[in-house]
Amino acid sequence: MTFQSIQRVLVLAALAVLLVLVLTKESVLRGWEAVIASTVVSVSAATETGANPFLAIVSFNRETGHPTGLQITPECTSAFLMVPLVIVTGLLIWLRRQGSFWPLLGLAVASLLLLATNQVRIVAVVLLIKGMGFSSGYYWGHTIVGSVISIFGIGLSLISYALLAIRSGRGRTAA
After folding, report:
1. Are 105 and 164 in contact (CB under 8 A)?
2. Coiled-coil segments, which residues (predicted)?
3. Percent of the chain's residues with pLDDT above 70
């Protein structure tokens, strides 16, 4: 077995572990998203925030005495959106013999973009709740504006992933 073969098997094993962790520890990932959202919302919506990572809840409007909390549910996390990317990355590394750098970089960039997209969506929900009240603000922020943000973010993530993951790493020559 060559060094490259051993390296490829180790990378594939690491991706398999990552996949299992995402699928079995998604509640922990949602908790991290809530903690990150607490900071992002505090800065961008100018409100006092808090987070409960065990329940994946980010709260805001704490300064008013009437805090509001949003729970990041399994349907609203960016974790599950990463699952297909991890699987495709594993397949690319398994089927291609050119190395794993570009597919892994594509996975990292796309995952960060998905996480950032979800943070932007949470901020939009918070801002609309603050501006329109809970009922209307949540509806517009989560259902309408949030869905549009998600669609664009997922599209940008997929394009970035594809452009990076299919690179061969070889220099291109002029035609």
Report:
1. yes
2. none
3. 94
